[in-house]
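Proteins fold reproducibly. Next comes an illustrative record:
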Amino acid sequence: MGSPIEMSDVIVSPSGQYVFASGDAGVFASSDHGLHWQKVPGSPSGATRLMLSDHDLFVGTGKGIYLI
């Protein structure tokens, strides 16, 4: 899959191994520097903000904050 469209936030893991992007369709992850993307299972739609804390990915939406 190509890059997600209409992204609202992008973050890179501290190791540089993963890139995460959020948007209306949910959260997508890439392990090859953005060449291919996969939707993160359980990610909420309308994702506007991302934050990594250790191995936890937090997702902010207009309805709340989720841990996925």
Observations:
- The longest strand covers residues 7-12.
